[in-house]
Specification:
8 helices; transferase; about 35% helix; single chain; about 270 residues; globular; Rossmann fold; alpha/beta; EC 2.4.2.1; purine-nucleoside phosphorylase activity
Length: about 270
């Protein structure tokens, strides 16, 4: 794996003593968390095999350092399936995080809500997902490790810890099921009605392949969605990526406080 070796060597050179415990993948409008880390930031362009993360609102850099006294590694951007048709686009970065010492992966995203009790500006703690796209990042994996058990993909103990952190910050985290829609176009009202019938509470274009990869690698996972809009047919917003970027900071501020408390309590 030449790209793996080159990237790991570059990271070790930039942060020779780093041993991060918690890894993050940040969604649209959530890049400010990386700015608070005391450490180093390495552009993806300097890391062989890392994605370009060519979606506006994402900062394509790996930040390694300390946040609230905990060593962390933050992937400031992700490559989405819709960019190049690769469900496994984040495999190498996640393999790197595991090699560095990460045991827990915290994934964030922006989403459209189906529920009136989780309106824009609020957060949803993901407790399960629906892989509506049907794509798996493990297609082509030759070993039996590809048969990953996803019964508790979103770790129950981490969810308890996040509820406690949210309560201390005066915030309420409602749990729900996240549906992965491949994008890049937004869903139709009919598709949203279908996903509601299937049991989804929110929809987005990321996270699920990353969680599958993380569980494949043996990492514990948790994920929180920032609600930026009501899904198609359920609200009055004009749904667009610009609207997502403009709306995300409202929920991101709440999530940032919860994450800091969560790390403090680890």
């Amino acid at each position: 794996m030449p790209d793996f070796t080159k990237s790991l060597t570059a990271i070790r050179a930039a942060a020779p003593n780093a041993r991060p415990r918690v890894g993050f993948i940040l969604g649209s409008g959530l890049g400010s968390l990386a700015d608070a880390v005391e450490g180093v930031s390495i552009p993806y362009a300097d890391l062989a095999g890392f994605p370009h993360a060519g979606v506006s609102g994402h900062t394509a850099a790996l930040t390694i350092g300390t946040l609230m006294g905990v060593e962390v590694a933050i992937l400031g951007g992700r490559e989405h399936y819709y960019e190049n048709g690769r469900a496994d686009a984040m495999r190498l970065p996640l393999e790197i995080l595991k090699e560095l010492g990460v045991e827990t992966l915290f994934v964030t995203n922006a989403c459209g809500s189906f529920r009136a009790d989780i309106p824009p500006g609020n957060l949803m703690l993901i407790n399960d997902h629906i892989n509506y796209s049907g794509r798996s990042p493990l297609i082509g994996e030759p070993t039996d490790a590809r048969f990953v058990n996803l019964t508790a993909a979103y770790d129950p103990n981490l969810r308890v810890a996040l509820h406690a952190a949210a309560a201390q910050e005066g915030e309420n985290l409602i749990e729900g099921v996240y549906a992965w829609y491949s994008g890049p176009n937004f869903e139709t009202p009919a598709e949203i009605r279908m996903l509601k019938l299937l049991g989804a509470d929110a929809v987005g274009m990321s996270t699920v392949p990353e969680v599958i990869l993380a569980r494949f690698l043996g990492l514990q996972c948790c994920a929180v969605s920032v609600v930026t809009n009501m899904a198609a047919g359920l609200g009055n917003e004009h749904i667009s990526h610009e609207h997502t970027k403009a709306s995300a900071p409202v929920g991101a501020e709440k999530l940032g406080r919860i994450i800091r408390r969560f790390l403090t309590d680890l």
